[in-house]
Amino acid sequence: MSKDSQMRAAINQKLIEMGERERLKELMRAKLVECGWKDQLKAHCKDVIIEKGLEHVTVEDLVTEVTPKGRALVPDSVKKELLQRIRAFLA
Questions:
Q1: Any coiled-coil ranges, and where (predicted)?
Q2: What percent of the chain has pLDDT over 90?
Q3: What is the pLDDT of residues 20-32, one digit of tens each?
Q4: In this structure, are residues 24 and 90 in contact, taking their beta carbons and an 8 Å threshold?
Q5: How far is residue 82 from each of residues 48, 57, 64, measured CA to CA in Å?
Q6: Measured between alpha carbons, how far is 44 from 15 in angstroms, rounded to an integer?
Q7: Please, are residues 82 and 24 in contact by the beta-carbon 8 Å criterion?
């Protein structure tokens, strides 16, 4: 395991132990709904299903197809806020 991976694992463990991970997840969920991300991703899912046909799309296919766009659609302001909150928690 690389040093970077070890650091991420340690931070994640601390976030879980202190209950901060769940609070951050709820905050991000609310922020993503607020900015319209959820609706955009839902529309993209519908487009993929229409394009490929309902009978020809599995959940795994949909996740593989939608994940890159979902990540790209997260506003920078939401990413920055999450990073700031993690840094404040670790300080």
A1: none
A2: 76
A3: 999 999 999 999 9
A4: no
A5: 29, 33, 24
A6: 32
A7: yes
| Residue 75 near residue 35 (C-beta atoms within 8 A) | yes
- φ and ψ at 74, to 5 degrees? -65, 120
pTM, two decimals, is 0.74
- In whole angstroms, give the CA distance from residue 91 to residue 88: 5
Amino acid identity, residue 15? L
- Could you tell me how many residues make up the chain? 91
